[in-house]
Amino acid sequence: MERTPEQEAAQEALAKLVRQCIAGDSQAWQQLVASQHRRIYAICYRFTGSGSDAEDLTQEVFLKLYKNLTSFDLQKGSFQTWITTLARNLLVDHFRRTRQDRATDSIDASFDGEEDGPTIADRLADHRESQEKHVANLELRGRIQKALGQLSPELREAVILRDLEDMDYKEISQVLRIPEGTVKSRISRGRGELARLLQRIEGQVV
Amino acid sequence: MLVDVLDGTLSTVDQATFDLHVAGCPSCTAMLADARRGAAWLTMLKPHRPEPSVTLLESILTQTSGITNKVNEPIVLGGSDHLRTPNTLLESPAWTPALNPAATAPAKVLPFRERIANAFRLDTLRHTFMQPRLAMTAAMAFFSIALTLNLTGVRLSELRASDFKPSSIKRTFYGTTASVMRTFDNMRVVYELESRVRDIQRASDNETSAPSDQNTPAPRNQPSRDQQSPSQKPQDQPDNQDHKQASPRPKSGSSRRESPQGHLQYVGQLSGRGTSPAATNDFELFAPNVYKQQQGELA
To answer: Which partner for A57 in A44, A141, A193, B111 could form a disulfide, CB atoms 3.0-4.6 Å apart?
Structure first.
């Protein structure tokens, strides 16, 4: 997949920002954090399904980035790939750490505590049509997120990076350190698994 | 290949081959449908990117903007933040703004080397060692050493270089040991117990061996310089014993010198019983050093 000129320009601007950070420019560091923290938070949130965990992990990613920024070599690869690899490694560590604590409840469970799901205020709101639709959409996104959390971490990370973060296969293969063919295979399997998990609610939506 | 089919990146030839295969393969058809539906679900999720809280950016910048902010503000890590304890240092960290010139600049990024160098600065070390637990440990160590030196009689003000020679250390060691032993022997309780044990042992020995000993009157009195008559023995024996007791004994010499009362009491006890040779014999059993020394003198 070829990059558009806009993407190329963005990559070049990011590389310049990183060079300034390595030189010790504090303003550049603030800009770098401001431009990247949402993306890293989104990846962490989609992988963990928890807002607080995602915030903690995002902070960890940037702390690690801050400590190791001088070791980053712009010639070897893009900064985007590097920071995503950092985040992915921390997510895998987090997954291993919390393996015992995780409850494998079904996707029909309630979505209490989900930042993305409907809040109590949403549920208690008046039942106008638009409001109902909004709540239904919130609930649907909560279910998709829940189903995503039920995928195996290998499939989950591949699907998130491809379908939610729009990374190309080459970048994903660099982040996950697997061949491009394996990346594609995992993405296909992940999508299929997700569809099967969400099959029960499919009739209600479509 | 499924991914490429969904992306539409297959060549026309490959696409034709794939379509031909899918037409006769239900499992591949199902897989393709699932993958397509899964991609559709994710497309629904994609536009709604989760947004972090507004404090996340500030937290990251606070943690990565130098030491100044780290000391004054707690690091926000999440839900367990309220469990953090307040600063318990003995002195206020007034030094921190001047600690790192780079950190005092507004949100200046600290290079890694500067942070390492700061860890070894005098102010940082003082800051580390002024924690209450370390200060308490140092105070207790000082107290223990001072108490030990005081008990062993070592005075730091009187120490000289010559005191650290091996011979001096050895002499000090033996001097301290003798001092401790003297103190122990001078204790009235010890002396009372010793004499009591002697009394009991003498009494039991009297009962068992008195008849046989009476037949052989005190052989060690025979070689005395002034030949005394047997009738004089009872009066002389206590004095003789007294003399033996007063002669140097390895551990109790000073006790005789410093506690005459106990000594007199001891003589009094002997005077009642010293009439029999057996009693004399028994007593001398408890003073082997004296006996040996006396024998040596006689020889």
So the answer is: A44
Number of domains making up chain A? 3
pLDDT tens per residue, range B205-244:
887 765 554 444 444 444 444 444 444 444 444 444 444 4
Indicate the residue type of B136: M
ipTM for this model:
0.79
* Residue to test with chain B: of A189, A194, A201, A204, most B Cβ within 10 A: A194
Cα Rg for chain A, rounded, in angstroms?
A: 19
Q: Is this model's pTM higher than 0.90 or not?
A: no
Please state, in angstroms and as integers, the Cα–Cα distance from residue B138 to each residue in A13, B125, B126, B127, following that order: 56, 15, 14, 15
Range of the domain at B17: 2-45
Asked, for residue B145, whether it belongs to a domain, the answer is no
Spatial contact of A3 and A11, defined as CB atoms under 8 Å apart: yes
- Touching check for A115 and chain B: CB below 8 Å? yes
Residue matched to tokens 């004095």:
B239
First to last CA, chain A: 31
Give me the CATH number covering residue A176: 1.10.10.10
The tens digit of pLDDT for each residue in B266-288 reads 444 444 444 444 444 444 445 44
Residue whose token pair is 């394996």: A182
Q: Chain B partners of A40 at a C-beta cutoff of 8 Å?
A: none
Quick one: which of B46, B38, B27, B3 has its CA closest to A199? Answer: B38
Q: Scan residues 64-103 of A and list those with Cβ closer than 8 Å to B.
A: 66-67, 70
Cα of first residue to Cα of last residue in chain B, in angstroms, is: 119
Contact B283, B250 (CB under 8 A): no
Q: Which of B38, B46, B50 sits opposite A45 (nearest CB)?
A: B50
Range of A185's domain? Answer: 151-206
